[in-house]
């Protein structure tokens, strides 16, 4: 997939906070950041497991086979 250049508009620091964007915009922005500047592991934290699963599916779509098998979901805590 061709880059849209979003990573240039959102400079990445040690911590980058992305709030919920419309539709699959969050996954698109994160995928752009990952392909543009990632040199090591990236941790993405979601509030609920359903949101994490959806984001994982969307990231798999945008990142394609280059990140296949590299997206892991950790189960939420049961209290």
Description:
The chain is an all-alpha fold and 79 residues long. It contains three helices and no strands. The protein is globular.
Which secondary-structure class do the elements indicate? Answer: mainly alpha
**Quantity of strands, as a count:** 0
First-residue to last-residue Cα separation:
41 Å
What's the story with the biggest beta sheet? Answer: none
Return residue spans where pLDDT drops below 50 for at least 5 consecutive residues. Answer: none
Report the principal-axis shape: globular
> What is the string of SSEs from the N terminus onward?
HHH
Global Rg: 13 Å
Proportion of residues in helical segments: 40-55%
Secondary structure tally, helices: 3
Rounded mean pLDDT score: 76
Q: Key features?
A:
mainly alpha; 41% helix; globular
Provide the fold topology:
Elements: H1 6-9, H2 25-37, H3 49-63
Brief synopsis:
The protein contains three helices and no strands.
């Amino acid at each position: 997939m061709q880059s849209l250049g979003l990573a240039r508009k959102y400079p990445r620091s040690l911590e980058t906070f992305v709030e919920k964007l419309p539709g699959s915009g969050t996954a698109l922005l994160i995928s752009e950041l990952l392909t543009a500047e990632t040199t090591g592991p990236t941790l993405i934290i979601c509030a609920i497991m359903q949101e994490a699963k959806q984001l994982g599916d969307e990231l798999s779509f945008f990142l394609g086979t280059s990140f296949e098998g590299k997206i892991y979901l950790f189960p939420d805590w049961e209290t």
